Write the structure tokens for this entry.
Amino acid sequence: MAIKKLLFASLLICSMIQSSHGATKERLFTDLEKGALEITATPSRTGEGVVLAAGIDKLSITWKVSSTATKEPEFKTIKVKLCYAPISQVDRPWRKTENELFKDKSCPHKISSFSYDPTVKTAQSFDYTLERDIPTGTYYVRAYAVDAKDHEVAFGQSTNQDKTTNLFSVQAISGRHKSLDIASVCFSVFSVVALLVFFVNEKRKAKIEQSK
Amino acid sequence: MAPNHSNENGSIGSSLHGVTAREQIFSFSVEDGPSSQAIRSDDPTAKFALPVDSEHRAKVFKPLSFAKPHMRAFHLGWISFFTCFISTFAAAPLVPVIRDNLDLTKTDIGNAGVASVSGAIFSRLAMGAVCDLLGARYGTAFSLMLSAPAVFSMSFVADAGSYLAVRFMIGFCLATFVSCQYWTSVMFTGKIIGLVNGCAGGWGDMGGGVTQLLMPMVFHVIKLTGATPFTAWRFAFFIPGFLQIIMGILVLTLGQDLPDGNLSTLQKSGQVSKDKFSKVFWFAVKNYRTWILFVLYGFSMGVELTINNVISGYFYDRFNLTLHTAGIVAASFGMANFFARPFGGYASDVAARLFGMRGRLWTLWILQTVGALFCIWLGRASSLPIAILAMMLFSVGTQAACGALFGVAPFVSRRSLGLISGLTGAGGNFGSGVTQLLFFSSSRFSTAEGLSLMGVMAVVCTIPVAFIHFPQWGSMFLRPSQHEERSKEEHYYGGEWTEEEKSLGLHEGSIKFAENSRSERGRKAVLADIPTPETGSPAHV
């Protein structure tokens, strides 16, 4: 009972701390500068109906700051993320796109994060191997430009406004393992056999008891 | 029979004990002479560690003891049930990982949740019969050890369909609820059965809370050894699987079906008569009270099972908590069972002492309705502290109602006790399936709306408790029957046997039970300390 009170009190305190950051929570996606970063993501295998394999295939990501970017002096860090295309958000409210940045769940997978060097004006690129915990789905890439206060100020994405072009599909790993399968079968068989052994044994003992 | 009250010091009428010389007349008795008195040295009941009644059921509940056979049965029963709850809801806190691995939609997850509780509807029914016919030990062991393979087979799951199938099969093990309650009902006497069943049920239900902490922790540890998340969650299911096998073996080696021995031995030696399944089934189904309890339990336990499946995801998604924190909050719901359900059983017992069965029925209605009202509040709470407060109050109310209901259930029938436990238990799962299907399986309602609507439905479906009427004890709004014959417990319990069966003496167990259940008259049982003899004139004057 005391533990529960403690838990409740600590959760209360945590939520109050959260709410004291209220000012930052109302930061909206629509406030960010659109198209400030130009970014393209090229999968290692392309073509009609190609599905990339998580853990194996790569993305080649090229980015640069657009000439029309106005908030460029504020950029401190660039965060590149893998985002769900609308088709992968259907009937999955945990991937919903929200305008409030802290609530938005459409870009949960971090690709890379690095500090912004204002002296380099040309396009830079790097390779990213799809992680093994990326779920099956259709994706695009988005880069956020973050200022010194760790607030997003601008972004750019590899697809268009409606998120219909330049999407790529990923197939997740199954997570299954042969050794796991074998162990599973062994223990299952043991369970059933042990039960039968007990049952038969006891029936036999009861019969012996009766014949006495 | 002298009602047990008269043996306690200071209870009303004890100072006059023996004056009328009418005490302790048994209408029917297997043994010669009274045996519910204090233990005598040549009394066969002297071999028990706890004081027992005429059916050798314990009159005292000592939770810290492991004495054979009563307390041992209690502990084996509730721990088995606890293990099954862990297995059935093991997937719930891991859903955020599983849904990514298997590419599940909200509909898939909701349907799997429905499936996880639906299997038990049938297995709980079957378990009632199994307990009546084979005994509680085998009922429990079958449930544990035959569903362990389903738990292990999570390693094979590859898509929504197989996920649903496996959760469905794991859900069968919730039948241990019935075997656990049956086991305690044959081991403990009616006066304390509310508390005992409440503790066994409540501590078992805690498994639904513990799993919300255990599984994320196991998952985390396995990930630390280097496994990817999509493999780690599969391996995590091995832990509940192991627990089930271990408990199954313990139950078979350490447990005992009845106070006097194991069922098969007693049946073969003729001490316990074998009953016909068709009769047992008929008397359970024919009794309208069974069906009212079916609905009631559907909206106390049913609501609790649904919450076990949805609450972790609710806090994770709505309040943006981490998997770990959402698990802690969700666990608090299930852990409240530790004291909430026994409290309900205890409240039922106290109400029975004062007001008899009518008190039990009122207690049940109050607790369940209050719990449902807090559920409505939970759905409407938009800040985290309020949501947690509402959830805790809701959990106490609903879980206490579960305990109070099993203070009533053992009295509905003696002959079909197992099957009624089974049917009521099945009702719990049925209610959970219905609520999950209606409110949590589609995008029609948000989870918050679903919670409030479920609370409203629970309030409405608790009203039928007013219609449960016992001729010998009354109901919520009606007094007991004044009729000479129908106002006796023996008439109610004897009514489950035909004249032919009575002439063969098959109903003696029910008559003993009827005498022991006189305590359900409340204070009137103590004032009318002396039971009216069956024949017109007293044996001694």
Remarks:
- Chain A has a mean pLDDT of 84.
